[in-house]
Each structure stands twice: as structure tokens, then as C-alpha cells.
Design a protein that fits this description.
The complex is a heterodimer of chains A (about 450) and B (about 250). In chain A, a hairpin with a 4-residue loop joins strand 5 and strand 6. The two termini of chain A are about 50 Å apart. Chain A has 22 helices and ten strands. With about 250 residues, chain B is an alpha/beta fold. Chain B contains 13 helices and eight strands. Classes of the chains: A alpha/beta (about 450), B alpha/beta (about 250). The interface between A and B is large, with 62 and 68 residues.
């Protein structure tokens, strides 16, 4: 446990991180509030969105087959990937068939999950991240700390320093100037790229459409300029009809960035553009495990808006890197017991169970409840000695709570402990952080139950 | 009317004044209160820590103790939510599931119970000064406690109620979270406390024992003497030890 506790302390002590997160999230949450206030009946809209996702995920395998047939008939190649290894192999084949040596990659969380950037490099191609935020992360050799706002942990000055150090532009602290500078250099990369790789927000079974939302136009450039376009996306993105996508599009940008609509919403047809080759790689990578895991299937309903991160009191303090794997914040924590690598399973402790995430979720995923279930599941993957110790303490607590006499004895034990072993109790309180700047509660002079029975004996009950 | 009260372990041991205020308040409204001294803990600590097998023992005990016909009232949104919602995630045997279905329809958080059928009706309590509200998360989100709480506080004459937008933000207690990641827990709580103290309140009013212990602890760890009491809303209405005012 101490590993995570140390990480958290480092994050709390990082003034730059605190400033960057504080400012960005305050602004995101204010915009979210405004964007939602414009809608007539948010709860009804969320109900409808949740129902659409439940329905779609419930029969996703069938829908995916329809989707695949639509695309195949129209000349798009559809590939199924069980995991990152499969994706890696497909990318290598595509790069070799089309002699790809320059790739532009649009922001994709599925890509982050699979180490897509590295797979493309290993296939012999250069890779440029084309989303401004992702490009900054790439230049800084970091990983995204938010699923929508990859460099939310950086202040403008930090970004200016990174771009300056990497020789991209003279130092600046002006966000507009920084993104203009980066945008200019990105444009050249699009024109020379052999392959564009992007993710997708929704896949539409009935019509074979692929829906992508973005603000910078880099996805549009990525699927229209290079002769080869590859979509790498999770199988759960499937929807039955375009009308379903339309409803979800009323919520996604509002929840994600507080926008009524993103600057660009692309609805690609099932066919590649004239003269282009298109591949769609449908990625499982643990999703069918979630599908079969009872209540955890709800996690597949997620539309990756990121609002749960923005409202989370823990995320707001520690940022995304503290979680130790691709998906931070409540949605990541809720998936962690099933999908995170072993070393990131501790991140399940990064939750106060406040429920702000479930409240904001546009598709009503009961995230706090799934985090609780995840904590139980994750025991098998945590350090056995720690789990045993925890269980021992809770078993002791349960026994102390299992009868009137035992309950009384545990109370006396507590008081005796304080009186006789003050030093040891103090050390324990120190370790658990209930001492000094947060004083531990003292047992009350008289328990409620003692007061109650005294009152009964005195007969002052009405 | 008769009601059975559930006084959670944290209140029994550390904050009995909340239990006493609950009893006084209910009795002032003509409710005949009963208390079963076999009651202890609902099992929430074990469940929240990810050990449902330990929680299930205490859950079954709870269900057997509160198997009566009268409504059960508790001054804790968190424990009510545990019973009402989370017991559904436990592996309970058939007969306890039957008890659970009965109890969850019959179990009320105190403010919820008071505004139901307008039980609180014409009650008037009196206090002076300013009270800043902090919405305890489970009371707010699991038992839908915001409106009931505000309706109850309306009955306190002479007090100015301050509910700022950040009143719905978590205080960082989080049960076992407070001991597993104490620095983070304290950082979140300190920020909440600063925001509330900026209103220069005479009272900080909450709805759950855990958050009260956390914020009281943080407040008492601070230098200075003029500190507002961090209290449960039932105390604002019916705790004679809070000074003059309140309901008899």
C-alpha cells in the first residue's frame, strides 16, 4: 500500500500539477454546468442514453457482424484483434503491404491501451501524434493523464518549456501561440504521411458508419489525406442505428468539454474514400471478459466523455498518472480489477465512494458500486500478505460487533488501550493519519446505549 | 406513531449526542421511540474495504434485529444506503433477502422520515447565527437527502443557512480511505474546511457521523480557539448542550 501512498504524497506536493489541475478542472466543471443547463430534461436524456447503450452492448456481437458485413461489402477490410499482439501483427502487415514509413496518429485511448504508437514504430514507420495535446505528451515522452485532455497536468509554461527544449518553437506561455506553433508543424506531417490511424467514437451497425468527434480537425486530415486509413477501436463502440448516435452526440461533447457540439463531427461511410485503402481493427483486449462479468458489463456502456474524472475529488488532487495505467479516474478505477496490470490494481484505493462520478455519468454507469465490487475482486491480484492483514483486522472488527457483550468489551478494550498503551495507540494513530493535524475521535464519556438504558431505568420515557 | 431507531456504531461510541438529539426530536414530534440494544454495526467498513464475506455476517445480524413492523429511522445516510442499496450486492441467503426487502422499504434516514407525511409539520426550533451546510455524500446521493435536509433546517428560526455550490463536494473522509491514504484525505478535507470557514459560520452542519469526525478532527488540529462546532443537523434542532435554543 505504501507505494500508492508515496505516489499520492508526491502528487500533492507538486505545486505545478496542483495549479494546472485546479485551473483546468474548475473551468471544465463550470462549462459542464452551463452546457447541461441548456438542455430541457437532462435526467430523461441520460435515461435514454443509458438505455441505448444497454441495448447496444447487450447484443453487440450480432451488431458487430452486421457492421462488418456492411463495411466488407463496401470495400473496407475489417480485422478482429483479441489483444495488443494481434493489433501489432495487423499493423506490421498493413505497413509492409503499403510500404508505410510515415504515419500520423490521432488521439485514441484504445491506442494508448495497446501501445499502438510503439507498434507502428516497430513496423518501420515514423509516428506523429496529430492531436495537439497528444503531440505535447509525445514530445515530452510522457503518457496522457486524462482520457480527453491528455496534458491537463501541465501548465502553459510547462508546455512552452517542453516545446522550446525540443526545438519546436521559441519559449512562450501563451496557450494560443503555443497551439498555433504546434499546429503549423503538424500540417506538414499530414501532407507527407502514408498512413493515418485514428480511433472512433461510435460504430453504426445498420449503416456501417464510423463516427468521430474532435475539435482540431486532425482526425479529418488523418482519414482524408493519407492513402491508407486505419481505424483502431474497441468492440463496445457499436450502436444499432445512426439515430442512437445522434442522441448520444447531444450528451458526449457537453459532458466532455462543455460544448454543444465539437468543432468537427465526422460520419464516415462504410466505403473507403476514392483511391484509399481503409482498415478497421475491432479490438477486444479484455472487453469480452467485462461482457461476461455480471454487473461489470455496464462498464462497456462508457462513451469516454471523461466527466467522471473531472468531478472526482481524488482525481482533482492527484491527476491521472497516480493511477498507474491507461485509464485514470473513476472509470479507470472501476475497470482496474479486471483490466489493469497487477501493479496498478492498488489504484482501487483512489476513491472516497462519494458517488459524484455515478451522478454525472451520461449513461448512468453505477461507477462507485462497481469500484466497490472491484475491490473485492482485486484481492486475488493484490499482495497476499496485505490482503490477509486487512482481512484479519476486519474479522476482528466483525467479531467485536457480533454481540452485545463483545461490543461492550471492545469499547472497554479501546478505553483501556488509550489509558495503558497510550504510546502504542499514538503510533498507530500516527500511521493511519488520525493524529496531529487531524485529531482522532475520543470515545464519548457515555455511550448512547448507556444513556438510553439509564433513561429507561429512571422512567423518563414518554 | 412508533419508530425503532438504528444508532450506528460511530454515533453510539463517538457522537452519542447525535443519537440523543434524534430521540429528543422524534419524541417532541410525538413519535414513540424504541431502541434495540443488540444493534451494533451495519457492516459498511468491511464492505467498503472490499471484504464482503465479513460484511455479510453483520448484514445478516442487522436484518434479524430489525425484522419488526415499525419504521426504522437512522440519523446516518451512509448506513441507510449500506442497508438499502449495498446489501443487494451481498450474498444473502433466501430468508435474509426476504427480510431485506421488507426492511429497505421500511428504513428511513432521519430527515427523510421527518419530511415524509410532513411529520415535522409545525415544529419550530430556535438558534442564532449562521450555519454552513456540507452535504454528506451518501446522504446526498444515495438517500436523496438534499431537499429533506433543507426542509428540516427551515424549521430552525433565527438562523441563516448557507449552502454554497461546493457544499456537494466530498470532504475526503471515505471510511477506510481516510486511513489508507490519510494525506490525500486530509488535503481534500482541509480545502473543504477552508471554504466553509470563509463564511465565518457559527455552526457547520452535516448529515453523517464519519464526515463529522473527519472535519472535527481537522478543525481541532488547527491553531486558534474560535472554532464553530461541527454538528449533525439533528443537534441544531434538539441538542440542549449546544446552548440556548432547540426543541425541548
Amino acid at each position: 500500500m505504501s507505494g500508492l501512498r508515496d505516489t499520492v504524497q508526491t502528487k500533492l506536493a507538486d505545486a505545478g500539477l496542483q495549479e494546472a489541475l485546479g485551473r483546468a478542472l474548475a473551468s471544465s466543471n463550470a462549462k459542464l454546468e452551463t452546457a447541461l443547463s441548456e438542455l430541457d430534461d437532462v435526467p430523461a436524456l441520460k435515461d435514454a442514453a443509458a438505455e441505448i447503450r444497454r441495448h447496444a452492448v447487450g447484443r453487440m456481437w450480432q451488431l458487430l457482424e452486421t457492421f462488418e458485413a456492411r463495411l466488407r461489402d463496401a470495400g473496407t477490410t475489417v480485422l478482429w484483434a483479441r489483444d495488443a499482439t494481434d493489433v501489432r501483427r495487423y499493423i506490421a502487415e498493413i505497413c509492409s503491404v503499403h510500404k508505410v514509413s510515415k504515419t500520423v496518429l490521432s488521439k485514441t485511448m484504445v491506442g494508448e491501451e495497446l501501445g499502438l504508437e510503439q507498434s507502428i514504430k516497430d513496423a518501420g514507420s515514423s509516428v506523429i501524434q496529430s492531436d495537439v495535446g497528444e503531440r505535447i505528451i509525445q514530445l515530452a515522452q510522457q503518457s496522457p493523464s486524462h482520457i480527453i485532455l491528455p496534458c491537463i497536468h501541465l501548465r502553459a509554461a510547462d508546455v512552452g518549456k517542453i516545446l522550446h527544449e525540443r526545438g519546436r518553437m521559441p519559449y512562450s506561455e501563451d496557450p494560443a501561440e503555443l497551439s498555433r506553433g504546434l499546429g503549423k508543424s503538424l500540417r506538414q506531417h499530414f501532407l507527407g504521411a502514408h498512413m493515418g490511424v485514428s480511433g472512433a467514437n461510435f460504430l453504426v451497425a445498420e449503416t456501417g458508419n464510423i463516427v468521430c468527434v474532435e475539435n482540431e480537425g486532425n482526425i479529418r486530415m488523418g482519414y482524408s489525406v493519407p492513402p491508407v486509413h486505419v481505424v483502431v477501436t474497441g468492440v463496445e463502440k457499436i450502436l444499432p442505428t445512426l439515430a442512437d448516435a445522434r442522441l448520444l452526440l447531444a450528451l458526449l461533447p457537453r459532458l466532455a468539454t462543455g460544448q454543444r457540439a465539437t468543432c468537427y463531427t465526422s460520419i464516415l461511410g462504410p466505403a473507403p474514400l476514392p483511391g484509399q485503402s481503409r482498415y478497421v481493427i475491432l479490438v477486444d483486449n479484455g472487453r469480452s471478459d467485462l461482457f461476461g462479468a455480471g454487473p461489470c458489463r455496464d462498464l462497456l456502456h462508457c462513451i469516454r466523455c471523461g466527466a467522471c474524472l473531472n468531478v472526482c475529488p481524488v482525481y482533482q488532487r492527484v491527476g491521472g498518472h497516480a493511477y498507474g495505467w491507461t485509464y485514470p479516474g473513476p472509470i479507470g478505477t472501476a475497470m482496474a480489477s479486471m483490466l489493469a496490470p497487477d501493479e496498478a490494481v492498488e489504484s482501487l484505493s483512489l476513491c472516497t465512494l462519494c458517488g459524484a462520478c455515478s451522478e454525472v455519468c451520461p449513461v448512468r454507469i453505477p461507477l462507485d458500486r462497481l469500484i466497490l465490487l472491484g475491490r473485492a475482486t482485486a484481492r486475488a491480484r493484490r499482495k497476499a500478505s496485505e490482503v490477509r492483514q486487512e482481512r484479519r483486522a476486519l474479522r476482528w472488527f466483525r467479531r467485536a460487533m457480533s454481540g452485545r457483550v463483545r461490543y461492550r468489551m471492545s469499547d472497554w478494550g479501546h478505553r483501556l488501550g488509550l489509558a495503558w498503551w497510550g504510546g502504542r495507540v499514538a503510533a498507530m494513530q500516527e500511521k493511519l493519519g488520525w493524529r496531529g493535524e487531524r485529531a482522532a475521535p475520543e470515545p464519548a464519556p457515555q455511550l448512547f446505549r448507556t444513556w438510553w438504558s439509564g433513561r429507561r431505568k429512571r422512567g423518563d420515557l414518554k | 406513531m412508533q419508530a425503532s431507531i438504528f444508532i450506528p456504531c460511530l454515533i453510539d461510541r463517538f457522537l452519542p449526542e447525535i443519537g440523543r438529539s434524534t430521540v429528543r426530536l422524534l419524541e417532541a414530534l410525538g413519535v414513540t421511540v424504541s431502541y434495540d440494544p443488540r444493534q451494533t454495526c451495519c457492516g459498511q467498513p468491511a464492505f467498503n474495504a472490499g471484504h464482503p464475506e465479513e460484511a455479510v455476517h453483520l448484514a445478516r445480524r442487522m436484518l434479524q434485529i430489525f425484522d419488526g413492523e415499525h419504521p426504522v429511522v437512522s440519523p446516518s445516510g451512509s448506513c441507510v444506503a449500506m442497508v438499502r442499496t449495498m446489501y443487494g450486492l451481498l450474498d444473502l441467503p433466501e430468508e435474509d433477502l426476504r427480510r431485506w426487502n421488507k426492511l429497505r422499504a421500511n428504513l428511513f434516514e432521519l430527515s427523510e422520515f421527518l419530511v415524509r407525511d410532513d411529520l415535522i409539520g409545525g415544529l419550530v426550533a430556535r438558534r442564532q447565527g449562521r450555519a454552513v451546510i456540507h452535504h454528506s455524500c451518501h446522504h446526498l446521493r444515495h438517500t436523496g437527502g438534499r431537499i429533506p435536509l433543507l426542509s428540516v433546517l427551515e424549521k430552525v428560526a433565527g438562523i441563516e443557512i448557507i449552502e454554497s455550490p461546493e457544499a456537494q463536494a466530498c470532504c475526503g473522509f471515505g471510511g477506510i480511505f481516510s486511513a489508507k491514504l490519510p494525506e490525500l484525505s486530509k488535503a481534500i478535507g482541509t480545502a473543504r474546511l477552508d471554504a466553509m470557514l470563509a463564511h465565518d459560520p457559527d455552526y457547520i452542519v452535516l448529515a453523517d457521523a464519519g464526515c463529522i469526525l473527519h472535519l472535527r478532527g481537522l478543525l481541532s488540529g488547527r491553531p486558534g480557539n474560535a472554532k464553530p462546532p461541527v454538528i449533525h443537523y439533528a443537534q441544531l434542532l434538539a441538542d440542549p448542550d449546544l446552548g440556548a435554543g432547540g426543541t425541548p
